[in-house]
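Hello again,

I reread your note about wanting to compare the complex against the isolated chains. To keep things tidy I'm splitting this into two emails, and this first one only covers the full assembly. Below are the input lines as submitted, including protein chains and any nucleic acid or small-molecule components. They are followed by the predicted structure of everything together. The single-chain runs will come separately.
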Amino acid sequence: MAKCDEGYLCEVCGHEVDEIVESDLYLRFILGLVDPEILHIASERHLKCNPTFAQYIVHPKFPSLQVEGDFDKRQLDPEFVATREQEITAGYRRLLEVAEKQIPITEMRE
Ligand SMILES: [Zn+2]
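Full-complex prediction:
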């Protein structure tokens, strides 16, 4: 995968996404929501810049986010929220592992 010198810029805040552990794109990739074919052209975001998604990460390494309005998880069905939290937090743990062990993209989803 080619990575240009500037790295990937977050489409929300415009700053570089320095670490894979802050990447919304890679977390969604690990969760099977992004095709490998489009990984290199898909737009990148910080997890913290996508709070409607990242609010479901429940992990000591991730500062919890709150969403105001209709997508606030505190307003949503608790059962739905619990399932989302389980899935997305599991993906986040995998993301930390991938970063720590420098697991290649092709093996990230295992
Ligand atoms: Zn950002």
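For quick reference: The radius of gyration is 14 Å.

B.
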